Amino acid sequence: MGEHHHGPAKGLKRWIFATNHKDIGTMYLWFSFAMFLLGGAFAMIIRAELFQPGLQLVEPGFFNQMTTMHGLIMVFGAIMPSFVGLANWMIPMMIGAPDMALPRMNNLSFWILPPTFLLLASTLFMEGGAPAFGWTFYAPLSTTYAPPSVTFFIFAVHLLGLSSIMGSINIVATVWNLRAPGMTWMKMPLFVWTWFITAYLLIAVMPVLAGAVTMMLMDIHFGTSFFSAAGGGDPVLFQHVFWFFGHPEVYIIILPAFGVVSQIIPTFARKPLFGYDSMVYATASIAFLSFIVWAHHMYTVGMPIAGELFFMYATLLIAVPTGVKVFNWITTMWRGAMTFETPMLFCIGFVVLFTLGGFTGVMLSMAPSDFQYHDSYFVVAHFHYVMVAGAVFSMTGAVYYWLPKWCGRMYSEPMGKIHFWISFVGFNLAFFPQHFVGLAGMPRRIPDYASQFADFNMLSSVGAFIYGGSQILFLYNVISTIVAGKPVSDDKVWEGAEGLEWTVATPAPFHTFAVPPRVK
Amino acid sequence: MATQQGSAVPAGHEEYYVPESSGMAISATIGLLLSIYGAASVLNDMTFGEPGAETNSWTIFICGLFWFVATLFMWFRTAIRENRAGMNSAQLKKSYVLGMFWFIFSEVMFFFVFFSVLFYVRVLVGPWLAGEGEAGAMNHLLWPGFEFDWPTMQTPQEAVGGAAGQPIANHGEFFSPHTSMAFGEVEHWWHWLPMWNTVILLSSSVTVHIAHLGLLENNRGKLNLWLGITVALASVFLALQVLEYHEAYTLYGLTLNSGIYGSTFFMLTGFHGFHVAMGMTMLLVQWLRSIRGGHFTADDHFGFEASSWYWHFVDVVWVMLFLFVYIF
Ligand code: HEM
Ligand SMILES: [Cu+2]
After folding, report:
1. Rounded CA gap, A171 and A158, in Å?
2. Is the pLDDT reported for residue B7 higher than 50?
3. Judging by beta carbons within 10 Å of its beta carbon (0-12, 13-18, 19+), is residue B203 exposed, middle or buried?
4. ipTM of this model?
5. Burial class (CB in 10 A: 0-12, 13-18, 19+), A331
6. pLDDT tens digits, residue range B216-267?
7. Taking CA A221 as the corner, what is the angle to CA A215 and CA A226, rounded to the nearest 5 degrees?
8. What's phi and psi for B22, nearest 5 deg?
9. pTM
10. Quick one: A23-502 is in which CATH superfamily?
11. Residue B297, SS3 per DSSP
C-alpha cells in the first residue's frame, strides 16, 4: 500500500501519459464537448441554408459535405465519447474499483480519437472535398461516386472502431472483474448495467462496421465487386451490413442514457428506482432485439415480403421493453418527494421527448406507412428526438448531476434552469415542425425545398439557433463552476443520492477505492 | 450499501496494480496515425494520383508502421516484465484473460461479416440477378442472359457483353476466371492445396496443445519442441497460401477483379491468412521467450495461453472456410 498514492503528474504530462480513470474520463468529456460544438457549427450552416427556400449560402455539394460531417461527428465524436467519458469516471466509483481494469489501454482508446477526428475533419480541405454521401455512406455513392477523401474516411472509421473496441473490452473487464466484495450483479447501479450491455453491443458490431468499410476500400481500390451488380455483388448488400451495425449502434447511443436517467430520477424523486430487475431485463432484451431489426431502415429497397413482415414485427417488439422502461421511470416519480434541480429537469425532458421519439419510431416501423415516411424529414425529426432529446439531454443532465462530485463545486442553479428551458424550447421549435414537413413530403438531405415548406423550415432554423446558442450558456456555467463555483461541503451533494460514488470525499480524490469497500 | 475505505485488503482482492503513468499509448497513437495516413495516401496515389508522380506516401507508411510495431514490442515487454516482477495480482491476470477473450470475440464478429456476405450473395443476390423471384423481376431487362451458379464463372457484366453492353449500374470491369478453386479432378487429388492446408492447420492445433501439455508437466523440452513445430507448420501454411494465390492469378485467371466469386474468395482467405500470420508471430514470440528467457511456469503462462487460444480460433475459421469457400 501507500506507495501508489501519488497525486497526479504536473502539467501536460498528466494528460498525455494518463492512466487514471478520472483523468481519462475528463479528457473524453472535454473532447466530446469540443466535437459537439464542431458538429453543432456544421448544423448551424445547414439550418442557415434551409432558413429560406432557394440556394443562398452554400453550394449543394458543400451542403452534402456538411450533413455528412455533422452526422459523423455527432454520432462518433460527440455522443459516443461523452458516454465513454462518463463510464470512465463513474463505473469504477460506482462498483468500488480502484481504476479501470486495463489503464494503459484506456489511455490508448482515448488518444486515438483526437488525431482521428483531425484526419476526418481535414478531408474538408482535400481535393474533391469531404465525404458527401451522408453518415450512412451507402454504396455506390460512397464507392463508385465518392471523392478521393473517402479513403481517409475509411481509415478514420477503422481507428474509431479500434478505439471503441478497446474501450468496451476495458469496461467489460472492469465490471466483470473489479466489483467490490458484495457488489453482486443485481446490486450494480443501472448505469453500470446499461454500460456493461452496451459494451457487448460495441464489441459485437464495431467489427461489422470495419468489415463494411473494408469492402468499400476493396471495391474502390482493388476492383472487387461486393457492392456492384455488374460483378455479381449488390449495392443493397452494403445497406444490410451497415444497418446490422447501425441499428445496434443507435442502442449503443441510447442505453447509457437510459442508465443515467435511471440514476438521476430516483435521487430527485427520493424513492428507489421502481422495478430495478425489470429494468435490467428490459435493457438486455432491447440489446438482443437490436440485432434482428436492422432492415427496418430498408423497407423501400425491394425486399421480399416475408422480410418486410419479419423486420416489421421484430421492430414493433422493441416498443415493449422500451415501454417497460418509460413506465418504470414514471412510476419512480409517482408520489415521490420531487424537487426539480437542473439534472432532474433534463431527465424529465428526456422521458417526455424520448417517448415522443419512440412513438414516431413505432410509426416508422410499420412497413406500409414507412413507404411514405422513409427518407423524409419525418425520419430526421424521429432520430433527433431520440438522439438529441434522448442521449444529449441525459448527458447534459449527467454533467450537472455529477459535476459537484467531480470538481467539488456547485454550478449555478438558476443558470442551469435557464439552460434547460432554452434548450427545451429551442429543441422542440427546431424539430417538432419537421414532423409535419416530413409527412407533407419534404425529403431529407436537400439544400433547397418547395416553397410550401418555407414557414416551418424558418421556425425550425430559429429553434436550432436557439438550441445551439444555449450550449454556450452551458459551457459558461461549467467553466465558471470549475474555477469559481461555491464549494460543496457534503460528500453526498444531493439529499436523495444513493450509491458508492457519493461515499467518497468531494471533490473525488485522485485515487478512490485503492482498497475495495465492502458492500452490504 | 454505504461503506468507507477500509484498511485491510479483503481476501481475493489483492492490491490491483495501476501503472502510475505511461507514454506507450501516445506513442502507439503516433505510429498508428502515421501508418494509416501513409496507407491511405498510398492507395489514393494508386487509384486517383497521376501515374509516376513522386510522393512520400510509402515512406510515411513504413515509418509509421515501424514506429507502431516498435511501440507494441515495448508495450508487451513492459507487461511481461511487470508480471515477472510479481506485480500482477491474480485479479489483474483475470483482467488480461477477459481482455483476450473478448478481443477474440470481436475477431469472430469480423469474420462473421464476410461469411454473411458470402451466404447472402450465394443464396439471395445471385438468383435475383438471374431474374428469379419478385426481387429479381427487373433483372431480365438489366442482365439478360445472366445465369447464376456458384462458383460464378461468368459475371453479369460479361453476360451482357462487357461494360459497354449495359451501361446502367455497370462500372468497373470484371473478368471471369476460367477455373475455380473448388476441388478439381479426383486422380490429381494431391494437387489440391486447400486439402493440404487443412491437414497442416488442424495438426498445428494439436501440436500447440501438446506443447501446452508439456508446459503443464514442467517439461521444457516438450514445450519448446512442439511449439517450434507449430510455428513451422504455420509458416508452411502461409507458404502454400502464397503458392495458391500465385496459381489463382497465373493459371486460373482468378483475381480480385473476377466479380463476386473472386471478391469473396480473396477477402475471406486473405483476412484469414493475415490472421494466421499474426497468430504465428504471437506463437513465435512465445517460443523465443521460452527458449531464450525460460519464461512461463506451469501455473503462470498467460502469454502462451492467449496465443494458443488465438491459434485455435484461426483454426476454426479455417474449417469454416474450407467447408464454405472450397467445398460447398
Ligand atoms: C421504439 C424504438 C424505436 C423504433 C421502433 C425505431 C424505428 C425506426 C425506424 C423504422 C427507422 C427507419 C425510418 C426510415 O428510414 O424510413 C428509424 C430511423 C432512425 N432511428 Fe429509430 N427507432 C427507435 C428508437 C431509436 C433510438 C433509441 C435511436 C437512437 C438513439 C434511433 C435512431 C434512429 C436513427 C439515427 C434513424 C435514422 C437513420 C438514418 O437513416 O440516417 N431510433 N427508427
Ligand atoms: Cu434502427
Report:
1. 20
2. no
3. middle
4. 0.94
5. middle
6. 999 999 999 999 999 999 999 999 999 999 999 998 899 999 999 999 999 9
7. 35
8. -155, 135
9. 0.94
10. Cytochrome c oxidase-like, subunit I domain (1.20.210.10)
11. strand
Distances (CA, A) of A182 to A186, A228, A505: 10, 56, 21
Q: And the C-alpha cell for A118?
A: 483531425
Cell numbers 425545398 correspond to what residue? Answer: A449
Side-chain half-sphere CA neighbours of A475 within 13 A: 12
For B87-101, what is each residue's pLDDT tens digit? Answer: 888 889 999 999 999
A 213-252 near B (Cβ less than 8 A): 214-215, 217-218, 220-226, 228-235, 237, 240-241, 244
C-alpha cell at A185: 450483479
Q: How many CB atoms lie within 10 A of CB B85?
A: 9
Chain A from 295 to 334: CB within 8 A of any B CB: 302-305
Look at A215 and B39 and tell me if their CB atoms are within 8 Å: no
Residue A246, H or E segment: helix A235-269
* Nearest-angstrom CA–CA distance, A91 and A195: 9
Orientation of helix A103-122 relative to helix A80-95, angle to 10°: 170
Angle at A484 between CA A478 and CA A488, to 5 degrees: 85
Cα(A332) to centroid(ligand 1), Å: 27
What is the C-alpha separation between B307 and A412, in angstroms, rounded?
54
Q: Which three cell numbers stand for residue B311?
A: 491459434
What DSSP string runs through A402-446? Answer: HHHHHHSEE--HHHHHHHHHHHHHHHHHHHHHHHHHHHTTPBSS-
Q: Which residue has the cell 459516443?
A: A80
Q: How far is CA A35 from CA A30, A69, A81, A117, in A?
A: 9, 11, 9, 9
CA gap B242, B180 in Å, rounded: 16
Could you give the residue numbers annotated as active site of A?
70, 99, 135, 163-164, 247, 249, 251, 262, 296-297, 322, 325, 444
Among A17, A103, A222, beta carbon nearest to B23:
A17
Contact A140, B171 (CB under 8 A): yes
Q: Which of B20, B26, B263 sits opposite A224 (nearest CB)?
A: B263
